[in-house]
Amino acid sequence: MKSSTIADSIRTRLGDFSSGERRVARALLASYPTAGLETVRLLAERAGVSAPTVLRFANRLGFANYPEFQRSLLEELSERDQSPLNAYSSGAAEGARESLDPEHLGRSAAATLSEAVEETLTGIPRYELEAAVGLLSDTDRRVVACGGRFSRVLAQYLVLHLMQVRGRSTVLPDSPVERADLLCDAGRRDVFVILDFRRYEEEHLRLAERVAEQEAKVVLLTDRWLSPVSGVADVVLPAQVGSLSAYDSLVPTMAVCEALVAGVIHTLGDRAEERLRRFEETSRGFGLL
């Protein structure tokens, strides 16, 4: 399983770069990966550095030259835009299909999914996970989560837990009036948790850009190719998506959600316990349990 992208390497090695190289790194991550497909001169202008600094940056990442760096980005871009149908038709899932007979299915799933979960949770930079937990543990902030065609389920899953342990958490409403009402008042005391996976949804980028302008914080849960929202997000939590089928797995991202909830409970301590107690009492009092 391929465990890292160029963006992963950049994020984990920011401290190793010179100040000029860090400017190139931030310029690239702010518009990933398209900024890296520009010429050396254009990327240098975007970052406010010299062309040789861009070349040194590519060398620091392990590429012999800039064309090699761009070829790797193009390979990522091809994977990033792949649909389940394309994956199936191209034979990308052929190896998995051979492991789907009843005799091997359970063992194959255990191996594939456990590897994806482990690579995800050990691959997320510590400071990113800490930042996400910090934002979600701030009970003065409202948490708003939204997802896509499939990942919306995980947005709901995360919110249902946060409702119990900290309150002030909701899924972005579907109703246009309710959604406009929530977004109209969004601001610096809000945290938007956006789940966006390939094929990325344009509305998520528009949402992130708009609420960021209104000074809300954005936490992104995405795949290893990175949603365009990564250029706007304050925190990026990428996950592996390896599965037995042509569909990307959301199991590793669910594990990230579980880790976030555990981190919030630990951070809030007695406050989380008291909130859970009141939540239980309220539920019983209104016959909701």
TrEMBL record:
Domain HTH rpiR-type: 4-80
InterPro entries xref list: Homeodomain-like_sf, HTH_RpiR, RpiR-like, RpiR-like_SIS, SIS_dom, SIS_dom_sf, WH-like_DNA-bd_sf
Source taxon at top rank: Bacteria
Biased composition (Basic and acidic residues): 95-104
Region feature Disordered, mapped onto this chain: 84-104
Sorted UniProt keywords: DNA-binding, Transcription, Transcription regulation
Protein name: MurR/RpiR family transcriptional regulator
Source species: Nocardiopsis exhalans
